[in-house]
Structure prediction request, 259 residues.
Amino acid sequence: MSRRRLIYEGKAKILYEGPEPGTLIQYFKDDATAFNAQKKGTISGKGVLNNRISEHIYTLLGSIGVPTHFIRRLNMREQLIRQVEIVPIEVVVRNVAAGTLSTRLGIEEGTQLPRTIIEYFYKDDALGDPMIADEHIAAFGWASQDEMNEIADLAIRVNDFLCGLFAAIGIRLVDFKLEFGRLWENDYSRIILADEISPDGCRLWDMSSGEKLDKDRFRRDLGGEAEAYQEVARRLGLLPEGEANAVLDLEEHRAKRGK
Ligand code: TMP
Prediction:
């Protein structure tokens, strides 16, 4: 049996050739990195949880008419997705000051922003993903003005939906990162949501305690990162009470048997 073709390996995911043209398999690793991979580690079971959480969110977004690359989950760590041409821009949506916004502008973490802010970063590891302005995107041709209008509209729709989804389970959506891709159909392309939405790329704070339920636990050496990701999955109704560990134990067991 021939091994399937690896298309791209990133820091937290691997893309393999899909079963049909125009599809890919997205594999979620347990690897975690921060600060442009200067800090490296693993969060046990993270890939399984992110696969499930992202499936859930993309399915809900699809049901409200947000076009996404998600087709279906294949197994614990893999999902089938549509192949797109990734727009080389990380789109960060912020509702509350935190992270680099706080350090860059001296605004205390946790300050509610007067309005939602969208920031753009150029996807280039060698440059450390620098922040960019609309002007750079237009001047260097990374995306057209129409595409950027579409991206900003979709980002706001995703934010409105996710704020409600998380508020309903006692979580404050502080900020998150999105990536978009071009889906080509003949000579035309349209913008769809790509990548993943999971605690790796969101800041999620418990509404009453303020406890961090996201990758900042890893970035800031707070500990308890696997439990935090499990808590998000549990509140989303993806891990019936008491089954969180059972799911991860089963996965470990399978891995040991080499399946
Ligand atoms: P920042 O405050 O570090 O700029 O991050 C803003 C949000 O974007 C936060 O939720 C984490 C997410 N993010 C990523 O998903 N990938 C990245 O490479 C970075 C820098 C941030």
